[in-house]
């Protein structure tokens, strides 16, 4: 029965919501009695038929990896379901999932007809918050799922960022950084979700105010497989660069072309590159700064010197 004991450490917010004690010691006898009476005792571990469990409408996770589900299903077939799901009782023979949809799906895939579950009492507000907090503790959520979960907790649970931070044991700056991801263009959010770029890349992109430039840097990261450091240098180059001095006849479109060249060169050399344009005919120079002899050697190597 020790295998069924629930892990702790889900944060003070979740602990505060789960005020009812878990009667693990008597779970075996309770399960037998409850199966006979069909009235599981709240707070205990009970075996419930999977066809009596409805999916949680507040589930924040929308994407389930099929291969990972198959692997979990194989494990459940061999070992059984080690960690019970959590449900609330809707009526005598019907339950609604609070957390553990991945485990439920895998159990059904493994052919189980009943699985162990904690039975809780929760209203819709508590249920939403419990599901969100339970999921936010998982390491396999991508950054966009975390950000969307934070947003839902703020909007639907009426929480301030400080309160949210306390619920999930994260400081306010971390919460803010996740929420800022949702201000990025949809294509970049999809890239974060699909693992095309990391959270580090995303944080660099957040610092680029202009959407067109954000998309440009995003494309450069993917096309050239830029590291987070290289992406940060590219962003810094965009932020720090000054517009070329305009000579007679040098228009805005030409300025943009020079700026794009600077960005491409900065990406190639992993350092800030500046084009100094002196007149409307395009006369000028290229400035590639270096920080040390080692850095110079690196740049010369890129130039096939």
From TrEMBL:
Belongs to the ParB family. The keyword DNA-binding applies. This is ParB/RepB/Spo0J family partition protein. CDD domains: SPO0J_N. SMART domains: ParB (SM00470). It comes from Sphingobacterium thermophilum. InterPro entries: Chromosome_partition/occlusion, HTH_ParB/Spo0J, ParB/RepB/Spo0J, ParB/Sulfiredoxin_sf, ParB_dimer_C, ParB_N. Keywords: Chromosome partition, DNA-binding. Residues 46-136 form the ParB-like N-terminal domain. It holds the Pfam family ParB_C.
């Amino acid at each position: 029965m020790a295998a069924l004991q629930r892990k702790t450490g889900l944060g003070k917010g979740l602990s505060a919501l789960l005020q009812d004690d878990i009667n693990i010691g008597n779970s075996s006898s309770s399960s037998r009695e409850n199966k006979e009476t069909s009235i599981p005792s709240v707070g205990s571990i009970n075996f419930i038929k999977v066809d009596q469990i409805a999916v949680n409408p507040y589930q924040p996770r929308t994407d389930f990896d099929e291969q990972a589900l198959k692997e979990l299903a194989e494990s459940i077939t061999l070992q059984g379901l080690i960690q019970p799901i959590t449900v609330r009782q809707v009526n005598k023979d019907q339950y609604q999932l609070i957390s553990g949809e991945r485990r439920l799906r895998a159990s059904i895939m493994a052919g189980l007809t009943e699985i162990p579950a904690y039975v809780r009492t929760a209203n819709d507000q508590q249920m939403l918050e419990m599901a969100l907090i339970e999921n936010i503790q998982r390491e396999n959520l991508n950054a966009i799922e975390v950000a969307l979960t934070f947003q839902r907790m703020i909007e639907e649970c009426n929480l301030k960022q400080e309160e949210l931070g306390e619920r999930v044991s994260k400081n306010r700056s971390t919460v803010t950084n996740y929420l800022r991801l949702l201000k990025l263009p949809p294509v970049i959010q999809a890239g974060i979700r699909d693992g095309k770029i990391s959270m580090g890349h995303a944080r660099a992109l957040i610092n680029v105010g202009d959407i067109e430039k954000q998309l440009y840097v995003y494309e450069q990261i993917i096309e050239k497989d830029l590291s987070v450091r290289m992406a940060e240098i590219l962003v810094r180059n965009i932020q720090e660069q000054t517009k070329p001095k305009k000579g007679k006849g040098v228009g805005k479109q030409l300025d943009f072309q020079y700026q794009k060249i600077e960005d491409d060169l900065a990406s190639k050399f992993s350092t800030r590159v500046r084009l100094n344009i002196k007149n409307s005919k395009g006369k000028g120079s290229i400035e590639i700064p270096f920080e040390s002899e080692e850095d110079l050697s690196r740049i010369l190597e890129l130039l096939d010197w």
